[in-house]
Design a protein that fits this description.
two-stranded antiparallel ribbon; mainly beta; 8% helix; binds zinc ion; 1 helix; single chain; four-stranded antiparallel beta sheet
Length: 103
């Protein structure tokens, strides 16, 4: 057996739309529906007990990058994440037309 296949971090199936998401270590949301789960208190710490669905509410440009604002449907917290290269462009452009979220 040649070559060790090292599994890249956390592949997961999106709870919202069922897309199999290939984790690359940076993936924190579903590229299809842009939802994620409220698992972090601080980014990446996985220490939240909420586990609500974080739904995208708006996309805002910040300098050269775009940020997705997501609101947790269980506890209402709003977080922002970077748009990833393989994200759903139609949904991104739709969300870009929505004004800044109230945070
Ligand atoms: Zn999804
Ligand atoms: Zn939450």
């Amino acid at each position: 057996m040649g070559g060790r296949f090292k599994r890249v971090r956390e592949d997961f199936t999106c709870d919202v739309c069922g897309t199999l998401v290939k984790g690359n270590g940076f993936t924190n949301h579903c590229p299809n529906c842009l939802c994620s789960k409220h698992v972090d208190v601080m980014p990446g710490d996985r220490s939240s007990k909420c586990l609500g669905i974080m739904r995208p509410i708006s996309v805002q440009r910040r300098g050269n990058s775009k940020m997705i604002y997501q609101r947790c449907e269980r506890c209402g917290v709003v977080k922002r994440v970077n748009v990833a290269e393989n994200d759903n462009v139609e949904l991104i452009s739709h969300l870009s037309t929505i004004d800044s979220p109230i945070i």
